[in-house]
Amino acid sequence: QLQLVESGGGLVQPGGSLRLSCRAPGFTLDYYAIAWFRQAPGKEREGVSCISSSGASTNYADSVKGRFTISRDTAKNTVFLQMNNLKPEDTAVYYCAAWGLSYQTDYVPEFKLNDYDHWGQGTQVTVSS
Questions:
Q1: CA distances from 28 to 31, 43, 63 (A)
Q2: Residue pLDDT tens, the chain, 129 long
Q3: Segment 19-22 long-range contacts (CB within 8 Å, at least 24 positions apart)
Q4: Cα 83 from chain centroid?
């Protein structure tokens, strides 16, 4: 069973940066599109960014465009979310999720929670002065 593990969260001041990582120990992520979602207290889980299994296509929520960058390192079997110019409203638990096929594709799935088969436990990001 594919298990996803997030890391890299923490406390940062407004305007600061963090880089989140999503790994799958013992499994290859080569055939999975990987998305980042986040959930703030009292709010619904929302999609932040997604990268296709090929790495050629990406998608971002409007609220993070120009500030966040998603990427994947095949050699490290890891997907990253670089978050710059963080704002207090970015405070949330961040989850990575996997959407898989049996082949690589440039397709980027939508941010529909039920479409993703595998989820990590989440990592807390707090933006505060």
A1: 8, 32, 30
A2: 889 999 999 999 999 999 999 999 999 999 999 999 999 999 999 999 999 999 999 999 999 999 999 999 999 999 999 999 999 999 999 999 999 887 889 999 999 999 999 999 999 999 999
A3: 19/80, 19/81, 19/82, 19/83, 20/80, 20/81, 20/83, 20/94, 20/96, 20/123, 20/125, 21/78, 21/79, 21/80, 22/78, 22/79, 22/80, 22/81, 22/96, 22/120
A4: 10
